[in-house]
Amino acid sequence: MSFDRACVIGAGSIGSLCAGHLGQVAEVSVLVRRPEHAAELNANGLRVSGKSDFTSRVTAATDPDELPVPELIIIATKAMQVEEAAAAISGRYPDAIVMTIQNGLGTEDVVAAHGSWPIVSSVTFMSGTKESDSHVHYELDTATWMGPFHASGTSFETVKEIGALFESVGLKVEVLPDLRPAQWSKLIFNASVNPVSALTDLPHVQLFARRDRDSDLGHLMFDLIEEGKRVAAAAGVELFEDPWEMNSRAVQQGSTHDDEYAHVPSMLADVRAGRRTEIDFILGSLVREAHRLGVAAPLSEGLYRLVKARDRSYDE
Amino acid sequence: MSFDRACVIGAGSIGSLCAGHLGQVAEVSVLVRRPEHAAELNANGLRVSGKSDFTSRVTAATDPDELPVPELIIIATKAMQVEEAAAAISGRYPDAIVMTIQNGLGTEDVVAAHGSWPIVSSVTFMSGTKESDSHVHYELDTATWMGPFHASGTSFETVKEIGALFESVGLKVEVLPDLRPAQWSKLIFNASVNPVSALTDLPHVQLFARRDRDSDLGHLMFDLIEEGKRVAAAAGVELFEDPWEMNSRAVQQGSTHDDEYAHVPSMLADVRAGRRTEIDFILGSLVREAHRLGVAAPLSEGLYRLVKARDRSYDE
Q1: Of B128, B23, B112, B27, the residue nearest B75 (C-alpha)
Q2: Which residues of chain A form CATH 3.40.50.720?
Q3: ipTM for the complex shown
Q4: pTM, to two decimals
């Protein structure tokens, strides 16, 4: 299988990083919501600066009918927009592979409800900042982890081919026969770092791992992560990495490479911009799993309700 | 005992309400931190609008040496400024009574370390908004509860006299031989409403009592209050009022008398203004009691650490 034509749906920072890089070796189309976003991409191409440095030509539109038929579709929207993205390609492109790259759990199921494509699950640790609609700055060049979404019958071979495609344009990849251990590791990491950051208005700083004084935030992070690990254990998932160590390492990197580390977790960026967060797909999905499995998770429940209420504060 | 000369330390909204009202029947002095605040009070007096309507002459200064010797001292600062306020009168006025009127627990002990005055404990449910340094708008004309701080040997008779003084100027008072049941009721109420409001950026609205959907904030409020009630029970305190009912009633009042109800809890006002909160004296004092008594209070601990971290965000 070859991937000469890829379509990226959603061109936030992760979608732009995917489209910009893949545009170096494939014909890349981009499906966006705003006509002016499409116009700017068509006029200027997509510039990537930072860890990579080039500009790729892309074809952008707000309507999939205006785009070439893709062999690979990467849904790179926020989790709560996956439904809309999948609906836009519902019934189309029966020969394509669809890849999801959201935080949290459950977006593969949303996609599967719209078509019988083989689905590739992924979680990414790379990060970037959108400087404009046609320019993304590539900050953390850490790996994207990919695996087959088994319920859709995806072969591991397909995942390896997509992994090879990403590596051919300089992106770091880890291909796994079962993504769940990695997905859950990142879920538990995100489900603690993001809400705590959004609620305290603090970027992901050293305090998140400090446990000296009783009031230190590291205690809360540790307790939250312990709850998440108990849920994972009850779900039969053996974690790929200890989320507490991911937390400690990330704040350590942040303190030594201030310019390079993406300090502001996406949920804090959302709150600061007055946007709704992805809480239902991140901490919310962990709370739902805890309920389903009968695991006590009082802190996770409490923080979930706080962020939900904060989201609702925009309606008040 | 008579109270011809009263001194109010701290002229935020509660201090201004006390000074303005007492100025109708007594010679009132006000000790403040900012010279321009003192100058404005000396020039214009203290105007009270809303539920009361008058202007009282007061004598204000930043140095107690410039004020007459008081018979009654009301420390009406925020909890974390009580230390500074008590230090300012340390060793002075041996014949005076000192009254505290902070949220939370423990400010009486801070005062007692600075002198052997009989101390009157109080908690207040009245509220107001400072329109300027010399004008306070009286919003909620609910009662102030007063009782003897027994460790300082205060007689109940003294408390009744101060209660009568407050009532003589139209303030509502409940005098109690033991304030702890009322103080703890308000502590648990405040220790839930204030942090949840500060963290969600929501005023004290109906959502705080709603428990329909799993994500509703009422569940968190209920669980937090249950923790507080377990701590009170372990401390041997029988509550004066159920804090969950206080919460439900307050949001109910808020929805029917929008103009009159003080929607924005003080901790949310602090966070919005970028000021440090009183968290250590409110939820913090409950967490310390939980630790001392060996009561599990994971949600209280978690929210305490979130607000502490939010306070620290001003340093980052």
Answers
A1: B112
A2: 5-175
A3: 0.79
A4: 0.82
